[in-house]
Batch of 4 targets.
Target 1
Amino acid sequence: PATKQSIGPAGGSLATPDGRLTLKIPQDALSSPVNVTIQPITDQSPGGLGKAYRLEPNGQTFGTPVEVSFHYDAQDLAGTSPDALDVAYQDAEGFWRVFQSVNRDQANKTLTVATTHFSDYTAVARFQLQPNRPVVRVGKSVELVLNSCGRRDFIDKLFKLSGSCLPVETTAIAAVNWTVNGNSGNSTFGTVTEEVKDAMTGGTYTAPAKKPTPNVVTVRTDVRYKFYASSNSDVWAFALITIVDEGYTASGESHDETYSGVICDLAKEFTVNGTGLA
């Protein structure tokens, strides 16, 4: 449901019931009362987080900038960092444009931008480590790739467009550092090594030979990105990796039926599917 309020020359504020988006209109930004609406919509922007919001009346302009603030939570930070969060709006041609200046308040977990017009707005994650929550068996490996949902070429950079989420090319990285649970890795929690494939930035995590306790580890990459204007010089992304024991292979045959499969836990019920039954 939409959130509505009439706001006039005296200014005012409006927020969604869940506090996800707050709109602050200063005094004299409007010359006459306007029925302001915040309408949640499906987010179709690259790297979008949760819902997008349509601020109406669409195209409404203001004499002085108004503030649009997004509140983010732990779910929004899955695989990314606060410094990698931005705000984008959709223009009349349908392009999602990233704001050049974003006030990132990590203490209050807010992203605030100043704007002079209404449109569709959303919070976006510019950097993500994928897969974000893989499951790996002991002794096995998984490849992790650093994705960027941002400006991809000169035109995108020039017009601040939000491009598709694509792997980061190594030519865009000034420095990268991989860690497991805060260190370079060990036999208890596993190890991670930098892996460059097709000139893309990534790493390979190898699980330890024995399942650790707890069996969820954090693999993190700290990146110094040449072309990303952040409050800090480094941006980081992470993946939460669950380590499980090896399964059991079941195979055999009975008359004309053969069967095979992987059983994860012999202490729990399982089903073996067969083929060849008449």
Target 2
Amino acid sequence: MKIIFYGTRDYDHLYFDLLAADPEYGCTIKFLTANLDVDTASLAKGGDAVCAFVNSDCSAPVLEVLAENGIQLLLMRCAGYNNVDLEAAARLGITVLRVPGYSPEAVAEHAMALAQAANRRICKAYIKVRNNNFALDGLLGYNLYGSCAGIVGTGRIGAAMARICHGYGMTVLAYDQYHNPELEGIVRYVELGELLRAADLISLHCPLTAETHHMINAATIELMRDNAILVNTSRGGLIDTDALIDALRRRKFAGVGLDVYEDEDGQVFEDFSDDVLHNEVVPVLTSFPNVVITSHQAFFTRTALQSIAITTMENARAFDRGEPLVNRVEG
């Protein structure tokens, strides 16, 4: 099998090069720095599969070009697949496989890091000390110990975050359609409204669907405590950005930590340090002293990268050998 690997970064070679050389997988990889979109899809000609990431364009027009060039398999080296037109993939005979769980602890640990950075004003404190300013003004936070955490979504990542919060000595509330039996004795499941009213720390860990789009909006924000911390490491579309900015202007939150945000697709993983951002979301959000934003890096640990590479290659091998496709995504 020949895999066309889109959106390659140096760190992608760490584990994919090693696994591609293993005869057990029986494949070759062609690495492209270009990301997958309608203009680059034709570069997959001659390949059997393409490997794409969360910021790739996997819409119907792109999939149609891939199919015309003989691509039968789309390997998503990530858990999310909301950027994939699954109906088009099925119509075109393209199988979609993903990596459902690579290192949930990596994302959960980053979520807690964002919460702590926002709470204790770590970024602001660092800049002050760099400027020889050791005054504590503007750096006041509060103890997480003894406070209440609200975990929205208790899959692998949400469960890992719940355990972290429990370890901090927090009372942990959770909201999910499906109750995770592994969290018995750690969380108490409640309705979303009760969670939002009670939680001092609200952390989002659910997929982006039609039902969850803008689940954090003007109405649900009003339910939250005025000194709550809101963290999102899942998908930007879970939060209505305009409503969030309005709330920040009213000093609604003690802190906000975001690893994802709406309309990030055009700039995520790219370097614009010598350019001007046309997306106004980041400049506006970073103007607030209690907001911390990172660049979709919650997954980015060595453990996670290794797990992503192994699962992706095992997905490719299973498809090539006609074995059961346990990580298949269907519309």
Target 3
Amino acid sequence: LSVGRDHRKDRGPWRGSVEGVALGGPTTVLTYGTDEIGAGPRLHVHPYDETFIVIEGNARFVVGDATLDAGAGQVVLGPAGVPHRFENLGPGRLQTVYIHHSPTWIQTDLE
């Protein structure tokens, strides 16, 4: 049994992650939460698909040329190689879970 890294002592809104390689699995899972309206990661890309799950609040996702608004309970796919980002639309907290379809987290920031 393995437990992922706890980011509570880290700066910023990232709160936890576990790479699939630590569990012998094919996916990496991260959590993110912020109360700041407009906050979110900058434009980036992965060489694998990423699934976003909105747990609480509302987010605006930019995935390639598409802009999608998603609320609690909705799921958005970021295809491999397609630049994407998101931000908290408010009101209130945005809490999300991300599934990276890779045993390790690989990200290239574009901004």
Target 4
Amino acid sequence: DGIRDIGVTGVQTCALPISRGAATAPDAAALLRTGWEAVDRQDASVARDAIRGLRAVGEGVKASLLESRLLVARGFAAAALDLLSHVDAGGDAAAVKLALLVRGETAYRLKMYPVAERDLAAVLSADPDAVDAHRLLGAMYYDAGVIPVAIRHLEETARLAPGDHRPSRLLGLIHNDYERYDEAVGHYRESLSRAPDQADRDDVLTELAACEVKLRRHREALATLGRIGTPGPAAEVLRAECLLAIGEPRQAAAIVERILDGVPDDLGALVLAGTIRLEEGDAVGAVTSLERAVAGHPHDYVARLRLAQALAGCGRDDDAARERGEAERIRATRRAFADLHQEAWDAPGDADVRRRLAAMAGELGRPDLAKVWLEAAAAIEAGR
């Protein structure tokens, strides 16, 4: 979900000054910060020590807020919400803002989007640069499929947290999904520049290279792929595709053969194997690979189109016509799917268009996307 993708793991307590009293404020601020960072790294023992320390210096409200956030992090969001309902921040403005942030995160985890939206909007009303409120809202709107609003909050998060690579990564994913490859490339590169050694670096590089291939920047893509530490099948298929595009079919074929030895039903490798054989004039061999691709992935447009070409090369005109017709049907559905994505982009509060996207995703053999869009529709309706 969005919270995982952009790493919503807590608030920057240094941005929330504590002004309870000159004697205890520094200790309380340090305890709160220590506890928050401990929750971020899932160190419950240190977090509990900080909670006890806050209570010992008379900061019971902030101790309860920290305890609530620890409960959320450990998967007990409902218990956290119950605890928050008994917290009275009184006239302490910093505590009120902190309470709104914690309650907003708790409500987001529970998919109580209207509550999360209300509380986090209140934080931003008091402090437009509250980075954690932007981060949570970016995640929430992304999960709800309200993409333009999600982008706005993610861009603010990236601006306010220049050391955080995760908002740029999610922005890359969003633009990639919407086939805005130029924008995706920029965001992926920004993510990598902020954290060259991030944990999922190879995945980011693979996604970046895929966008560069879509833009026909094959040599740039090869350079990007060369930075991957341990290439997976997707990266190797991209490498083979680039080599074929720049006139190195033998190297491409060798890579494809190696992939298929390990993953015999890999769609990209099967389609590329068929494409290479077609270019070599081996229509019969191409049919063999492409029929396997279509059998395993019947909703793939490129596999169907290449199979039609290979069948025509074998003189099987009726079979070729049938596959070409099916390819055109899939392409028309994909075009309608892309248009519906734009409609969803332009209508952030329309649940019906998201249900239509879910149905069309099912037609395209993507139950994962169907689930995402059904959840987005449900989230919109819950907020009405």
